[in-house]
Design brief:
The complex is a heterodimer. Chain A contains 14 helices and 17 strands. By secondary structure, chain A is an alpha/beta fold. In chain A, strands 4-10-9-8-7-5-6 form a seven-stranded mixed sheet, with helices on both faces. The termini of chain A are far apart. By secondary structure, chain B is α+β, with helices and mostly antiparallel strands. Chain B has a single domain, classed as Sufe protein. Chain: A, CATH 3.90.1010. A three-stranded antiparallel sheet of chain B has the order 1-2-3, with helices on one face. In chain B, strand 1 and strand 2 form a beta hairpin. Chain B starts with a helix and ends with a helix. The chains are: A alpha/beta, B alpha+beta. The complex binds pyridoxal-5'-phosphate.
Chain lengths: 415, 143
Amino acid sequence: MNVKLHNPDKGTDPEAIRADFPILSRKVHNKPLVYFDNAATTQKPQAVIDALVGYYTGLNSNVHRGVHYLSQQATIAFEEVRQKIQHFVNAKFSHEIIYTRGCTEAINLVAASWGKVNVGKGDEILISGMEHHSNIVPWQMLCEEKGAVLKVCPLHPDGSLDMEAYAAMLGSKTRLVAITHISNTLGTINPVKEITRLAHEKGITVLIDGAQALSHMKVDVQDIGCEFYAFSAHKVYGPMGIGALYGKEDVLNAMPPYQGGGEMIKSVTFEKTLYNELPFKFEAGTPNVGDVIGFGAALDYISAIGIERIAAWEHELLCYATEKLSADPAIRIIGTAPEKASLISFLINGIHPFDAGTIIDHMGVAVRTGTHCTQPLMDGLGISGTIRASFAFYNTKQEIDRLMEAIEKVKEFFL
Amino acid sequence: MKIEETTSAIVSEFESFDDWMDKYNYLIELGKSLPLIDEKYKVESNLIQGCQSRVWLHAGFDGTLVHFTADSDAVITKGIANLLIRAFSGHTPQEILDSSTEFLKEIGLTEHLSPTRSNGMLSMIKQIKMYALAFKTKAAMGN
Ligand SMILES: Cc1ncc(COP(=O)(O)O)c(C=O)c1O
């Protein structure tokens, strides 16, 4: 697949990079768009859009089935992306990468399949107080079905995980730890390697929700050591509707299939079905080939720029925004952990986030307001929601200045 | 005044605004001037769960007319509640059921009408109509 790139020599020159993202040149409410809702979904570079169009105009056919030319080419492209993902997260084997609809389905797959045979009555599943609903509800459902207990590790006031409490909560009944790599509300980067190490000391399986991490930092699943790592393409500049579950080979092999259908079987008679091997055992039905191809293009695109360079620029944006927001006494930043990804949640002096967000939107700045699907976290903090600005490497300091102007406008309206 | 008369009055008020800032300033003013709801009605059962702002809507029925009061923790949402109450409060259940909510589109509040659950406006309208239906049924059974 040909990937059209900005000149890599320009490094992270914002203008060159921004030119790769057509949507960034549009206007909203008659103002140039400032897109600060990257934690919800990232925008797509032309390379990804081209890959999708290219797939449907020149390659579309069903995979793994036909002997005909197109089917073979599509299958090759589809499996190549699996290898790209494998290398991107440094998995040991490409068959440890299971395609899913996204992070949510990846977590549900583990809850349904692994949970079916590994969790029983009285067992415990340990999550944290900063989880997205996607990493809470599947475990609640599993606990309800099995008579297991959901435990929640508390946070420090700055939004970092209370590691002492965590270590103490790992008990003889704990079957699984399911914790996010990066909080989508607070920006906290959790020490996932240490979290995994401590769990493994007690023989406990670990799932990391990587939805927010993949776009911001180098992820190495072997270094982390976790059994499962879940993520979505659309938060890494790829298409919606596709994502993946990384699972350790031996763990995946020991799990029962997730859904039944075509692709996941070796042979079927009405008496007995032999299941296919990894990764196909977990991929029933015709997969989302086009979006897999798009996902591959997205990974190529960010690899060409370099995740380290992306991380460095995003860190600069985070520092700049933190400095600007902290200088305003009317603003309270929610989440001040020492290790943070490039997103900031904040409140403006008693102004409801919905009110603030409505005005900020009219100023052409797209932020997210509300509970960010982390309602228990909001309840714990005693707030009804936050305003969240989340940055990507195509954002600029001038755009942060536009946010600050919008905040001034909010204050004019409500204070 | 008939509901349509009130709503067309609201539409012409909004037509006089040149830009979005005037419109929102007016909505905020309406929010701040929304008559206070009786604290005893700010209960869980009157809560309309929009995703972002909490809205309490109370409906009373005097046998003929329905009377609404509301509150929200967001000012813009309160402004919208004020508009809805002005349009629908003090009418019979049938009048409320027969009324159109097109005026909200005409005054350019469509962004609040999208079913994103971003605020309680759609749910407020739904709830207003539900109350009307319930009171209509109640009145019919009472007869
Ligand atoms: C931390 C976290 N986990 C899980 C998810 C769910 O991802 P998706 O909706 O793409 O499945 C999100 C998305 O908002 C997230 O931020």
